[in-house]
Amino acid sequence: MHELSIANRVVELVTERVREAGPGRVAAITLRIGALSCVHEDALRFGFDLVREGTPASDAELRIVKVPVTIWCAACEREFALPDVRKFTCPACGVPSGDIRAGRELDLEAIELTDEATAG
Ligand SMILES: [Zn+2]
């Protein structure tokens, strides 16, 4: 399950970031995951639950933003989000396109820290 190693890496990154910021805990983590990244959300959430114990992210909410596959169609001269990731053809004109503009993301987009003063 490679999601476990991804979850591990995310928690490591977040922990480093929190240390740099000073004392505090993580309220939420936002990840952007492309439809072509081969990451399963359920497996990632499961992995995250396993690895976050005892880290500053142990109570963090994991937010996952799914990024659809977007291709560039040279015929239409615009980008389209693909409804079906198995068919790399333009949804408007049907011309095949391998020019992938989005969908491979696996990004740590945001980390929200709790404010210790107000969190009590
Ligand atoms: Zn087109």
Low-confidence stretches: none
Radius of gyration: 18 Å
* Content of β-strand: 25-35%
Query: Helical element count?
Result: 3
How are the strands of the largest sheet arranged? Answer: 2-1-6
The fold-level CATH name of the domain at 2-68 and 103-115 is: hypothetical protein PF0899 fold
Order of helices and strands: HEHEEEEEH
The biggest sheet, with number of strands, parallel, antiparallel or mixed sense and barrel status, is: 3 strands, mixed
Give the integer mean of the pLDDT values. Answer: 92
Quickly give the structural class: alpha+beta
Gross morphology: elongated
Q: Distance between the terminal alpha carbons, to the nearest Å?
A: 38 Å
Helix percent reads 25-40%
Short characterization:
The chain has about 120 residues and is an alpha+beta fold. It contains three helices and six strands, in the order αβαβββββα. It has a domain at about 1-70 and about 105-115: hypothetical protein PF0899 fold, CATH 3.30.2320.50.
Blueprint (SSEs and pairs):
Blueprint lengths: L1 H20 L4 E9 L6 H11 L9 E7 L2 E4 L4 E4 L18 E3 L3 E8 L2 H4 L1
Parallel strand pairs: 1-2
Antiparallel strand pairs: 1-6, 3-4, 3-5
Helix pairs in contact: 1-2
Bound molecules: zinc ion (ZN).
Q: Describe it for me?
A:
The protein contains three helices and six strands. With 120 residues, the protein is of the alpha+beta class. Helix 1 packs across helix 2. It has a domain at 2-68 and 103-115: hypothetical protein PF0899 fold, CATH 3.30.2320. It has helices spanning 2-21, 41-51, 116-119, and strands at 26-34, 61-67, 70-73, 78-81, 100-102, 106-113. The strands form two sheets. The chain has a three-stranded mixed β-sheet, covered by helices on one side. Strands 4-3-5 form a three-stranded antiparallel β-sheet, with no helix packed on it. Residues 73, 75-76, 90, 92-93, 95 line the site of zinc ion.
